[in-house]
Structure prediction request, 412 residues.
Amino acid sequence: MDIHQQRIVITGVGLAAPGSDNLTDFRAKLLAGTSDIRTIELRYFGSAPAGICDFPETRYRKKKENKRGTRAGCLGVYCAHEALASAGLARDTYDPARIGVYIGLTEHGTVETENEVYNISQFGYNVDYWTHHHNPRTVLNNPAGEITMSLGITGPHYSIGAACAAGNASLIQGVQMLRLNEVDMALAGGISESTGSFGIFASFKAQGALGEADDPRQACRPFDLSRNGIVVSEGACVYVLERLETALDRGAKIYGEIVGYAINSDARDFVLPYATRQAQCMQLALDRAGLSPEDVDLINTHATGTRQGDIEECKAIAEVFGNASPHINNTKSIIGHAMGAAGVLELAGNLPAFDDHLVHPTINVTELDPECALPNLVLNAPAHRERMSVILNNSFGMVGINSVVIVKRYEP
Prediction:
């Protein structure tokens, strides 16, 4: 078989999301439409709705190791170990030199730098109090590197900076590296520690793009006429990717097969999305998968709850899918926007639909924006779909980057 045509499957999923630290609980909360968004207090900024992860931080690393590392690294180490456990893989199943770690990030280092600047401010800005751990904490490959150190992986590791499309981009990288025979197994995913940075909240606030509501659980409301912006969340999700034949040889559970993907650029604006390029990205992914719009059963939207962003994506979906009738949902309405982890977390929350045939709802929609009124948009309660074979996952980001990943139910 041509290596470029090798079938690549997902055999393990490890995650930490607001309110959940495993896929079973995460799926249950999504189907119930239960949001764990809460109000947090940020230095210099004040209060804001946000998604915070509660997970057993010392399950795989000691407290001292977590303190030396980063929040992003802590999230990544937990999710990587959980992904291997869910895949039924021991550390020595694969040659550690033939395992690759690819982690998508929106940004990294902001939290650590803000904390250190604040710390020396308590000592008259005396840099003698600046930690010597700062440089290794803030290099872009840090979260991926922390995973390799925890697991003894000696193959390639790096982070992929692709704004909020980074999670999808990491999956694409993992697929490509497997097909190029650079690795035999990939740990691919995305991480966000954004809730630790007051600057991110302040910037969205200055743009008029920070979601607000009296009840923080209702602050993220994509497609609703009253939506007013993004709810920032932390989170992480790491997948085990393997070639189909090796997964079958060891009797692995297969969560889905990655059959298509695409990344393109708007080349147009720093922050404003562009429906035309988003549509082209979806169509390219379909073409690469050998699928038509009618083959898609579920579209998980990127929609963040900003007015123009939601409208542009809905235009793009309408252009590509026309008379097709996929069900459409949005995960951010429940967990907020996990930035670099968004695409992979949202895909993970939808993968169980292959088994239960349920489409989790978009919540917080009390008055649907007419410009977002797509057919089969699942609002406020789950929907059942008899055929559930193909999921298309959208993930877009600032500076005009678009990504699409298509996953198919594995069938022999």
Remarks:
- The CA atoms of residues 279 and 317 lie 7 Å apart.
- Residues 261-408 form a domain with the Peroxisomal Thiolase; Chain A, domain 1 fold (CATH 3.40.47.10).
- The radius of gyration is 20 Å.
